[in-house]
Write a structure and sequence with these properties.
With about 280 residues, the protein is mainly α. The protein has helices spanning about 5-15, 25, 55-65, 70-85, 85-90, 95-105, 120-135, 140-145, 145-160, 175-195, 200, 205-210, 230-235, 245; strands at about 160, 165-170, 220-225, 265. Helix content is about 50%, strand content about 5%. The protein is globular and about 70 Å long.
Length: about 280
Amino acid sequence: MTLTRFRQLIQLACAVLSNSYLGVFQKAAINTNALKGVCVPFLNCYACPSAVFACPIGTLQHFASIGVIPFYLIGYLFLVGLLTGRMACGWLCPFGFLQDLLYKINTRKYRIAPGWRYSKYGVLLILAIAIPWWSGECWFSKLCPAGTLTAGLPWAIWNPVNPATGQQVLPNGPGWWFYVALLVLIGFLIWFVFSRRPFCKTVCPMGAILALFNRFSLINLDIKKNCDGCHKCQDICPMDLDVSIEANSGECIRCLECTRCAQVKLHHPFDHRKKVC
């Protein structure tokens, strides 16, 4: 089995396991079990009908909207980032998996200008923290394409009767804001076909948080001193990085595709070899 296929299977397993609450078909209500208080290190909408765990960005917005500092979440994200950097983006995130799949469609491809990588920090600070803190509303969640895909669309299409209330979950339909979010989702889905991981590069606040730890994480990449800069690793990098000089930048999602080149090696705490650079 190739590295790519193995990684995709793990991403698919994460998508299934993190959204495996079957009780929703009986209750027609969001899961509120104890595990719902546990975050996964990737986007996983709390409102998804079958969600088992919580989304870290949704949790961040919730606490911001009520004016409380989420010390548990901060500690959790710090631990994940320090251990693996953005590796969850490359190995676990189902929305990243979707982007990789759609990019395989045979069309003309376009690279995103490197300067746009900084926009996700603005999304994190403004849309996921500042505006929720000021307005009391989780505005990133209202527009999040991952949330629309896994929560908004399923509820709008299914719209079951909740046995506890005797009413449909959406008695008046999804509302106009749903259609705004749906347009955002459609726009991103089209973009995924033409560019590599544009959501990860330009918008994702979770990626922005974990990117801060990449240079200090226990798992990183080593580039051999005799690397000739052939850029073959850049051709297969889903983030369009020049791996020879950006191996441990905040944009690397630790997918390890570049390790197909003999000049790139994974370095981790259990690797007792001397670092090569």
